[in-house]
Predict the structure of NADP oxidoreductase.
Amino acid sequence: MRIGIIGTGMVGQTLGSKLVSLGHQVTLGSRTKDNEKALAWAAQAGPDGHAGTFAEAAAFGEVVLNATGGTVSLAALRAAGAEHLGGKLLIDLANPLVFDADGQVTLDPANTDSIGERIQREFPEAKVVKALNTVNCALMVAPDRLAGEHQLFIAGNDADAKAETVALLGGFGWPAEWIIDLGDITAARATEMMMPLWLRLMRKFGTAEFNYRIQQAK
Amino acid sequence: MRIGIIGTGMVGQTLGSKLVSLGHQVTLGSRTKDNEKALAWAAQAGPDGHAGTFAEAAAFGEVVLNATGGTVSLAALRAAGAEHLGGKLLIDLANPLVFDADGQVTLDPANTDSIGERIQREFPEAKVVKALNTVNCALMVAPDRLAGEHQLFIAGNDADAKAETVALLGGFGWPAEWIIDLGDITAARATEMMMPLWLRLMRKFGTAEFNYRIQQAK
């Protein structure tokens, strides 16, 4: 499958490399065509890894992943172009983190809105599925780094798009039964709002390699 | 120990009954002295269970638990009286849930503030510890209803008050090593912001008897 990734940071690169290793073709998109990180990634990714602009990556992908920081996601997706996103599964991994001068991290938006919802509203023809934003990218593509079962959460308005997302996550090593469908795209608020806890835990543990397991009554 | 509970709902009553069963003396406080739920609870709780006003419960307790809904907690604690809270451990269980007409549940405050912080700011002489607000009250007092380890989170500015909270939770059946100290009271934001996920999970599972387990790398 051809996959476009919007964003060239560690998340985009990690996902891109895993997808290439699984036999997919990947274009990593950045704001400018000469982005050094994207070019370096493509150079080592082999013939199935490409670099391009946001628009080129979105046009290339049958599926598009938003791996930008949440506070710049809408600008990046505008540059990618609504005409390249319509009708496609758009997996949104973003968390809208704002790092304040006082050391606090807040979300923008939060509580009454989410990045996932904003993307769906601005690109109504895209099939937005919120996913993967609750785990570190090393775990995204290798859930067996943790012992036993642990959870991912998905949210979105289109059942087929969510099923396609679950299948893609299966390729990363996530059993379908570990993935909890929280409902429509407004549930993106719930997973984005887990970030303050996640950041506290990361600071406490000194590692990003942890995840949530939901335990139910015996 | 003498414990004052602010709030007469299911959370307050469940905690009160457990505390009485553990040999503590409990006064359940309500807005008015003739609150029927509080009087009925005290009648069946035996000689160690009492009912009274918010102020009477706070004055009675060597430790005070805030078991009111988060949107009314400050009003209830003002009625309880700063003079009855100063110097005491004040365990805050509140979540500031606002149920909107459109079926969405939001928090007020959220993200840049929390009920835990607001209480600590308004009652600077109290030793506020945020705890227990991430689990259903049946689990609060019986963590063994779920199989295996699962987590509670605490936050607060006073290390001794947190240690005292951990000891009290131990009486409820929570091993100290299951409880994660997230830091100062601003971390109350993190646990209050887990509520949107919790509510989605509750609707999905059809039960409130679940909890989070944090899994770390092997």
